[in-house]
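seq:
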Amino acid sequence: MARMRIQRAIRQALCADNFIEVETDCLQPSPGNETHLHAFATEWIGPDLARHALYLPTSPELAMKKLIAAGEPRIFQFAPSFRNRERGPLHAPQFTMLEWYRAGLEGFPQAGADEEPEKTGDEADFEVMIGDALSLITTAAEAAGTQTLRYRDREAAVDRVRLMRVDVALASILSLDIETVQAAIRRGNDAAMRDISRAAGLRVGADDTWSSLFSKLVTVLEPNLCNGEIVVLTHYPVSQSAFACADPLHPRLALRFEVYACGVELANGCCELVSGREQRVRLDAQMAERRTVYGEAYPIDDDFIAAVGSMPNAAGCAIGFDRLVMLATGASHIDHVRWTPQPA
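struct:
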């Protein structure tokens, strides 16, 4: 019942803000192209018996951006999403993603041809999306009759929020030297990344890449983001932000943020990349790394690349809806807030 109330309250809030609710297909030509996300594959057999590979999406992002490119200014959906190799208290192979996009935000340079350099957003638009996420989290808590999010023995008050850059968070919470961390993150220094990884107590192997070590550091960082408040981490490296535009002041950092409560990641948002050429370069790099790590890669959706190249300036965000319901109700397992959970 709390899940229903939360979903209804969020839907009402977004519709009151002139968002349109959409429904994108669960069968897609590509599931998404982030290195470490694993998809479910299937195939469509046509009337002529020709076989076509299709996938269940890891998120609705690619399909929703096509709608933004087609002219929709504000859209949202509660989307079934699918990720393989994931199961646990906070993970299910099928889950619900709450995702929304705003197009035409002020503060962006005027869009040019796709051959022009990547267009970037500014801090004002970044703050709009962060504000959206925090507002919807508060809406969810109020619909559940609480002002406090809970997960196991951890709590976070929805009216206590702290914004931190990722490099600052790593340095302060893991007691690392800030200058060394910034050298690793902002300048992409591989030796510095290995140094701070060892300082954080991580085992560093010969086959570890800059990217894999950054992911490990974030995994170490996450449980520490639980000091009774909601934490918004900002300015992730561009190499870890396949769909986000770069910060014009720090080109190696992206205008991307993640929201944490009780040590649990709840939201992931950004000002969107709107260069089709740059988008293909980034996804090619992600899939090259995937081939190296996992021995396979997913196709890149050419229609999505074309859509990115014709998108207006936009920003978007996704919230793990099941996790949000968990924390608003104090549930300890994702299965407790899903109507028909999959067998463990």
